[in-house]
Amino acid sequence: MKAQTVVVQFVIFFVLSISILGALGYFFKLQSDLFREDVASGHRKLVNSYVSAIAINLLAECKICDYAALSFKLQNMTGGYYTEISFSNNQSSVITQPGGVADKSSLHNLNYTLLFNGFSYSIKPITLTLEKDKNILGVS
Predict the structure, then answer these.
(1) In terms of pTM, does the model score above 0.85?
(2) Alpha carbons 62 and 117: distance in angstroms, whole number
(3) In degrees to the nearest 10, what's the CA dihedral of 106, 110, 111, 116?
(4) Is 60 exceeded by the pLDDT of residue 111?
(5) Which residue of 2, 66, 114, 126 has the fewest C-beta atoms within 10 A of its own C-beta?
(6) Cβ neighbours of residue 39 under 8 Å, at least 6 residues apart?
């Protein structure tokens, strides 16, 4: 009977230790996912501000020209997410993939004078183009 008690105690302690280890692993994975999402959220806002600043710079610097283009490169992945920049419906969107969470902006109300079009991903250089004669601001 003593041997059975020792075996039962061993099984109970083994199951408890595996349960505690699993709970700790789940907790750390949850924290990691929360930190990644916080980083991605901050990154979306910063990229939107950056694109807005570049668009304003294109408009301010190009007084006489009809066409201007400016290329820039973003980091491929931030927090394990790719970044997509798209212009549509008179606003800019920065979307992180996978997940498809978006941060939208009117680019400081430039949508009253310009039409927006195009999209691009962070894995290649991004080019903002301004066609003043057609009032189009595009991304490619």
Answers:
(1) no
(2) 19
(3) -90
(4) no
(5) 2
(6) 78, 79
137 in helix, strand or coil?
Answer: strand
Say if residues 87 and 118 touch (Cβ distance below 8 Å).
yes
Q: Which amino acid is at 131?
A: E
Average pLDDT, the chain: 84
pLDDT in tens, 12-40: 999 999 999 999 999 999 999 999 888 88
Coil vs helix vs strand at 79: coil
Please give the Cα distance from 36 to 71 (Å, whole number).
27
Structure tokens at 87: 């212009």
* DSSP-derived 3-state class of residue 123: coil
Q: On the CB side of 74, how many CA atoms lie within 13 Å of its CA?
A: 23
Instruction: Give the CA dihedral 67, 65, 114, 97, nearest 10 degrees.
Output: 40
Annotate 1-19 with DSSP letters as a single string: -HHHHHHHHHHHHHHHHHH
pLDDT for 27 equals 96
